[in-house]
Amino acid sequence: MLREHVDADDDLGREVRAVMEAGLLVPDDLVNRLVVQRLKRPDAISGFILDGYPRTLTQAAFLSKLLETKGVSPVVVHLLVDYNKIISRLSGRLQCPVCGTVYNLSTKPPKVENKCDIEGATLVTRPDDSPEVVRHRLEEYDVQTRPLLDHFRNSGNAFYEVKGGGIPPQKIADEICGLVTQQQQ
């Protein structure tokens, strides 16, 4: 959601660009506004997945009230991934500035080094994907987000932890879908 607004260069995008590029977390009130806007779209009517939100107890309290008014019971999944793998994956990410295609040096490299397979444009690393910025974001995560795990474990809602490091994405998705389906029964 944040990148969508940054790419659109709208008011919200301009507001969050500098914060994101510095590796900081976007303020709660701004993220909450984005979530409310996004959940009003037609594709979220039957259900939705929030990835990376909420990140703070303030956001969690806001979300709980929002979901309660909509009659939605959340299923929370905490994906367990080693920080070194996260840093390696994100700092190896490249993007085409023309078409937006994303590559990864270790998992999905371009056919020609540093060139987009589609456009031929020189690939770029986003400022928020440098190893230093990723490390800083993970430190912020530990300080601000870790308390959410206890919050959700004790919330009375469904809470699961799923291992994500070194496992194919489809296998992880299948496991999560199974947990959500099981919860709905």
Q: Would you write up a description of this structure?
A:
This protein has 185 residues and is mainly alpha-helical. The chain has a domain at 1-71. 49% of the residues lie in helices and 10% in strands. The protein is built from eight helices and four strands. The strands form two sheets. The protein has a two-stranded parallel ribbon. It has a two-stranded antiparallel ribbon with strand order 2-3. It is globular, with a radius of gyration of 18 Å. The chain starts with a helix and ends with a helix. The model has no long low-confidence stretch (mean pLDDT 89).
What fraction of the residues are assigned to beta strands by DSSP? 5-15%
Overall body shape: globular
The profile of the biggest β sheet is: 2 strands, parallel
- The averaged pLDDT comes out at 89
Record the SSE blueprint:
Blueprint: H1 2-8, H2 11-21, H3 28-39, H4 57-70, E1 75-80, H5 83-91, E2 93-95, E3 102-104, H6 131-144, H7 146-153, E4 158-163, H8 169-184
Parallel strand pairs: 1-4
Antiparallel strand pairs: 2-3
Helix pairs in contact: 1-2, 3-4, 5-6
